[in-house]
Amino acid sequence: MNFLPFTKYSLTGSPVECPICGNVKRTQISKYDRRFKILPHSKCDECALVRHEFMLSDEQLSQYYSANYRTDYQWVNSGPTSRHIQKRVSEAKLRLNNLHPHLKKNPKILDFGCGSGEFVELAQNRGAMASGFEPGKSYSKYARDQKGLDVQNCGWENYEREEKVDVVTAFHVFEHLIDPLKAFHKSVSWLNVGGIIYIEVPNMANGLKRKGFGSLHMAHTIGFGRYSLELLGAYCDMKILEVFNGYNIGIIFKKGVPRPLDKIKKDSIDEFKNLNLKQINKQFWIYSASKLFGKRSVD
After folding, report:
1. How many independent structural domains does the chain possess?
2. Model confidence, pTM
């Protein structure tokens, strides 16, 4: 990847309608990402979903994640590091504890974009029949060959299964997609009756308020808030079972009648209402100054 600031990335896309609500009207909130690369971001005027102004194609995105993502953003070109594994194990424990009250005995769990498989392994060790899929070649190979886990090397578009599962999990995956609605619909198709979906993503509203455009980058094509993530589930006829609302946002969904779409959209607009181009630029410099002088940034 070309890291020269104030230039465009070599991978460029095209303007698209909102990946959730389909609205074409949008407002630009930043011209740059955290590397000072030219990467315009907009928020939807109808539901406030944040996205790349110029979205990559399916083919471009697939190639990027299968071959370049880990090197580009984590500076690794092989399997996971020990530091990565330690962090993912800690996260997996918290996530499985969040899920525990909603699990039946020996559940079947599918981890969407499972990385190097720490969550799959922990769920398996606690009695679940757990499996996953991961588009990154080195990480899926590590999970399969070194850990002996049931992990396939593929993206969600190519993943198929006949046997239904009780739970689909996706941790820090949906912010990397270009068609989250289609991916969510497909996730629902993998569920048994009464099954649940647990999605966790960075909370873009929190990120922008704290870091400004320092929270934006090439790998995250979409930025969810608390309510735009709820809206994604609502468009798939899924309602909220439980919310984990911190710096990240996690929601457990189940089949049912969601809140009215217009009410969810209003809440999402309110969540992002003060996050405009001027404020996001200003917050980036406040955050940068706080790091420079060793002070905590203003939230």
Report:
1. 1
2. 0.93
